[in-house]
Specification:
20 strands; OB fold (Dihydrolipoamide Acetyltransferase, E2P); 8 helices; alpha+beta
């Protein structure tokens, strides 16, 4: 396996009175495609700059393959960075932009010619070697930046929102290409983004960061399906979040200890949820369920399963988008509706062709159902 392990331990960083990073610790594996995901200003780019050597932490350690690299300047770390704005030299050709790091280290002409050819081939730019950056598309410029960053064969490649300047379709295309390049060269990629779809698409693991704190680290599946906090649930895709109180919690013994809890949620009534968190009756918690986990129907579902939650509601707003419809459903708790009743978002995929259009319309009365295993307790309120 190529690349380096990157161990971040107890990193703190402040600018004046503003704490940018607060006790950040990460264990990034050799050869991983690892993403730092969070909103603007959360500290992810500052952490990337510390790994690159452009910033120094106030406290903490940074090791690569077990070696402390904090005393080393950027040019002595086996790391290279791709920036948002590509940072290409406008007066140099594509060939010379890619060759620049090798010329700095006084490589031979034969080595430069051979390696530049190989890396232009890697990023599919063999026929563009003589062009200047202003003759290239945004995606081509990004490929030049990737080739230049890789030609010195770093152990770790740092990518700071590298696709943010591209339009949506090109961004998706470049994302696939980045993933393919990673698979081919096998070094460690650390990718900074605020776009959760980008992170979910290509990452082996993701660290979700907010206000300088790492809230959760896990695979895309773990982050999406089992969010650790309400912020993670909201930030990764769409979800429904409700405050509730634990009515009872019965321990289930299986492959892992978990609880079948019953929550009392205003406007929804009693809702069942399984959770690995240690919860007790009387605790106030935050509950979430993803819109695509909820089944919507005009007919009352018939089921004997005790773990199914079922609610009645009225379609407040349907939003049709071709492959799916998003429904905003105002609940009918105890047969009553009102302005304060909760609204639940539901996604329904359109898997089959329909002549008549959507079968659930505005103001229709509907039933919503989901399994207790598809909802999550994502936080226990302090003091409860």
């Amino acid at each position: 396996m190529k690349g380096s392990d990157v161990d971040v331990e107890g990193i703190f960083k402040s600018f004046g009175d503003f704490d940018v990073l607060k006790n950040v610790s990460l264990d990034i594996k050799k050869g991983e495609f690892f993403s730092l995901l969070g909103p603007s200003g959360c500290g992810k780019t500052t952490l990337l700059r510390i790994i690159a050597g452009f910033e120094s932490p106030d406290e903490g350690s940074l090791k690569m393959d077990g070696v402390d690299v904090l005393p080393l300047p950027p040019n002595r770390r086996q790391v290279n960075t791709i920036f948002q704005n590509y940072a290409l030299f406008p007066h140099l050709s594509v060939f010379e932009n890619v060759a620049f790091p090798l010329r700095i280290q006084r490589s031979s002409r034969d080595e430069i010619d051979s390696k530049v050819h190989d890396y232009l081939k890697l990023v599919q730019l063999e026929g563009h070697a003589s062009k200047k950056p202003n003759q290239l598309s945004g995606g081509q410029k990004q490929r030049v930046a990737i080739a230049r960053a890789l030609i010195k064969e770093p152990h770790v490649l740092l990518l700071d929102e590298p696709l943010s300047a591209l339009d949506a379709k090109l961004r998706q295309h470049m994302l696939i290409e980045l993933d393919e390049i990673h698979d081919k060269i096998g070094i460690t990629f650390i990718y900074v983004t605020h776009d959760q779809q980008e992170a979910l698409s290509v990452s082996d693991r993701i660290a979700v960061i907010d206000q300088g704190n790492v809230l959760q680290v896990g695979t895309p599946h773990e982050i999406y399906e089992s969010p650790a906090t309400g912020f993670v649930a909201r930030f990764i895709g769409e979800t429904n979040l409700f405050d509730g109180k634990v009515v009872k919690a019965d321990k289930i013994y299986g492959p892992q200890a978990e609880y079948m809890a019953e929550l009392e949620i205003p406007g929804l009534g009693n809702v069942k949820v399984t959770t690995v968190d240690d919860v007790e009756a009387g605790q106030e918690v935050i509950f979430t369920v993803r819109p695509e986990k909820i089944v919507i129907s005009t007919e009352k579902p018939v089921t004997k399963r005790e773990d199914i939650n079922m609610l009645k509601g009225v379609v407040d707003e349907p939003i049709y988008s071709g492959f799916q419809t998003k429904y905003y459903v105002k609940t009918l708790y105890n047969g009553e509706s009102g302005g304060q009743q909760p609204v639940i978002r539901v996604m329904k995929q359109h898997a089959r062709y329909s002549d008549e259009g959507p079968d659930i319309l505005w103001q229709d009365e509907v039933y919503l159902s989901w399994s207790a295993h598809d909802g999550y307790v994502v936080g226990v309120k302090e003091g409860s």
